[in-house]
Model the fold of this input.
Amino acid sequence: MKSKSLYQWLEYLESIHPKEIEMGLNRVRTVAQRMDLIKPASKVMLVAGTNGKGSTVTYCSTILSQCGLLVGSYMSPHLHVYNERVRINNKMASDLDLVESFEAIEIARQDITLTYFEFGTLSSLYIFKKYKVDCAVIEVGLGGRLDATNIVDPDVSVVTSVGLDHQDWLGDDLDQIAYEKAGVFRSGKMAVCGEECVSSRLIEHAESIGANLLIKNTDYSVISDGSKWSWKGKSLDNKDVAFDSIDLPNLPLENAGTALQAILAIYPQLTLSQINQGLALAKLPGRMQRFEQPFSGLLDVGHNPQAAKLVATQWKKSPVKGRRFALLAMLSDKDAVNVVSELKDTVDVWHLAGLDGFRGQTVDELNTKVSSIVSIAGLHKGVAEALEYLKNELQDGDEILILGSFITVANAQIWLEGCQHG
Done:
């Protein structure tokens, strides 16, 4: 029988489980054990957090690859093609490798049901094991304790940040969310927290299982003078380690500091040269991504208040001669009110757009939520329609921030690409 294409497999995976998300590890762990995927590489890093996961995974992957290691990374969701989720030394997985992995999982699961994300997680582990990567850097999808990725046996675990997101699954209690994310920590292993003000639940859990918890600005720190930065932290045997005059990265600096602390658990021989080479390669489309044509602006996939606050802080560091515009399009289950509240003092002109599809939200629904907080200059059916209109509105010196969802950024990238080749 002819093998399914990758597109056919992805359609199939979306259809075989009645729920998009089903928390719990028993089903996915059973299949992983059958396939011997619990330890997919000699070293494993597991990265959880409300924001900063993608840049932390990217930093770890690019720096470790400059140490001569073969590094597999797994992140989600993707912007344009599924292959973006699984990479080896930053090269996307091929259709053939993904299809092979899905076929193997389908045989191994027998009568066990798996969600789309669980299938994808097992697929990444299968590909990492197939290519015998030295280190697997894995991004947690949702929460931590009950996320499918938590079946692995990590050598170091990271919680980048703790904020409100996915409240339908994790609740509105930050202490409970911190506890869920701390579920990725392991007894006797390094655990890194990228937040300075840490929930007591996270600390208590780390202590209760005997994890070696290292906390930002307590055990490791970042200092920048605007042109270079320095880092101080701890080795695996708790000795002081420091690097000075590090090049500024393309992605958020704070996550680079967290990544360095985690990397030392995997590769204690790290050098300044390897750090700088890795930072130069660390790029993540859709995260504070700048573009200049047909007008100047930034793309950001941020979709919660914590991400919006970071974007506002970063954006204000770069002077703008004209007005600051924002184009916001968000999924219906996201906290649009507080996202706009975090940005309202930074943005001069607001435009809103709708998003189609599952969990999508019309522009009128979004407008109802946020129009009492800021004055809305324009409502648009979709992102492309909004950008077509704004092409004639933005003047020299103006700048626009396009944000709210991976879907928002993906649609904007397609439109921008069309402008460049149109």
User: Anything to note?
Assistant: The mean pLDDT is 93. The longest strand covers residues 240-247. The CA atoms of residues 205 and 369 lie 37 Å apart. The two ends are 42 Å apart (CA to CA).
